[in-house]
Amino acid sequence: MLREFDLTGSTALVTGGGRGIGRAIALTLAEAGADVAVAARTMSQVEQVSKEIKALNRRSLSVQVDVADPQDVAAMVSRTTSELGKIDILVNNAGISGKSPLTSLDTNAWHQIIETNLSGPLYCCRAVAPQMLERRYGRIINISSTSGAIPSAEGAAYNTSKAALNMLTKVLSLEWAPYNVGVNAIGPGWFNTEMSKASLATPNQRAKVESIIPLGRLTNLRDLGLLAVFLASAASQWMTGQVIYLDGGETGAVL
């Protein structure tokens, strides 16, 4: 491995790490040498991912958390720091989706999406900030979406939450650049996850999705893990405030 990508000695905290994108990122960070705390609402899922990380001879911790609850977030960060020693890398992946025409958008649904997808990352960043700023080192990776750049009908809550997360990424990158804390985001396109499976359920649906991707195909979740390793490592030491879309070229024509 190139030494700049080696995460040996680093500790990562991955929210929404029990399945899908979060699981892939947590496991790939561990492969690159990091110890990883895995957090999500479903304890059985994060316990399984932690077990897989430990099989890679890395330390791991499974934490049950609701990122929309700032007290839960504070407890998660405190426990991770206490048991693993520090947090060098924060991956804000926990998120929920939802589609609804604005005229029938339930107020509670709006707040749930905004609180989870936007306030959650803010709470997590705020909770890890003191130790990162004091050590003058840290890497924060927010998991956004192509929906933060491309509008879609019935996406008033979800698209807005991801667009706002992109701006939060840029604002924090400016605030924390003097402390050598890098803040970047990954905007995934179409991946086969629990969140997207209904849209990829049949061959015709999958073909329709692939038709809007310039590369003409889906890819493996591991690709997101590899990008996260880059953003978490010394290889990205001069990169901050960026939103990187991993989408097969989907946003290329609009950004």
Task: Please give a structural write-up.
The structure is a single chain. The chain has seven helices and seven strands; from the N terminus they run βαβαβαβαβαβααβ. By secondary structure, the protein is an alpha/beta fold. It has one domain (3-246): NAD(P)-binding Rossmann-like Domain (Rossmann fold, 3-Layer(aba) Sandwich). Strands 3-2-1-4-5-6-7 form a seven-stranded parallel β-sheet, with helices on both faces. Strand 2, helix 2 and strand 3 (60-64) form a beta-alpha-beta unit. Helix 1 (20-31) runs parallel beside helix 2 (43-54).
Outline of this structure?
The chain has one domain: Rossmann fold (3-Layer(aba) Sandwich), CATH 3.40.50.
- Radius of gyration based on Cα positions: 17 Å
Largest pleated sheet: 7 strands, parallel
- Cα end-to-end separation: 33 Å
Low-confidence stretches: none
Task: Indicate the proportion of strand residues.
Answer: 5-15%
Assembly classification? single chain
Structural class label: alpha/beta
CATH topology: Rossmann fold
Instruction: Supply the number of helical segments.
Output: 7
Helix content: 40-55%
Strand order of the largest sheet: 3-2-1-4-5-6-7
Order of helices and strands: EHEHEHEHEHEHHE
Please report the first level of CATH classification, the CATH class.
Answer: Alpha Beta
Task: Count all strands and give the number.
Answer: 7
CATH-level-4 superfamily name: NAD(P)-binding Rossmann-like Domain
Which architecture per CATH? 3-Layer(aba) Sandwich
Name the overall outline.
Answer: globular
